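Quick one, tokens below. Sequence please?
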């Protein structure tokens, strides 16, 4: 797995966020039984940075907590059978890894939402990565049924990693 983390702002977290992010990405790949080595990019930014991206790519004129930019086109969420052993545009020609996509997280939103929901910034950060990884695997939450599937997977992954809302 290749995991790249870029900081476009000051990151005031009081936990080892680089290690946590890499561990969450790797655990999601294992949990979903992703069949290949993968490449994932995570960018940490502030509200102004994510606002600009949200306006440009989603035509939504406000900041948000996380944006996901999947590079794969799924027929069905979580079904990786369309990938073909290192061939095609889905694989990085230099590494042979599947290029899953990009995750952009607002550090400001992590802190605000953690306080608002009454759990730790560490838990909120992990949750946003899990949520975004599921998007990179083709899951969505546009309908109630899709949302229920995503919420259950998020609960399973965070539970298996012992990351709970009670983390202070």
């Amino acid at each position: 797995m290749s995991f790249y983390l870029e900081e476009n702002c000051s990151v005031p977290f009081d936990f080892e966020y680089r290690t946590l992010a890499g561990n969450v990405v790797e655990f999601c790949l294992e949990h979903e039984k992703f069949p290949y080595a993968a490449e994932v990019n995570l960018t940490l930014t502030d509200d102004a940075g994510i606002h600009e991206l949200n306006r440009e790519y989603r035509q939504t004129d406000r900041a948000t907590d996380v944006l996901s930019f999947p590079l794969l086109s799924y027929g069905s969420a979580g079904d990786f059978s369309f990938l073909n052993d290192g061939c095609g545009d889905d694989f990085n020609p230099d590494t042979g890894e599947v290029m899953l996509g990009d995750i952009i997280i607002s550090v400001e939103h992590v802190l605000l939402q953690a306080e608002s929901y009454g759990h730790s910034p560490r838990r909120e950060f992990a949750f946003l990565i899990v949520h975004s990884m599921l998007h990179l695997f083709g899951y969505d939450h546009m309908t109630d049924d899709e949302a229920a599937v995503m919420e259950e997977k998020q609960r399973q992954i965070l539970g298996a990693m012992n990351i709970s809302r009670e983390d202070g």
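The chain has a mean pLDDT of 94. The chain is about 40% helix and 15% strand.
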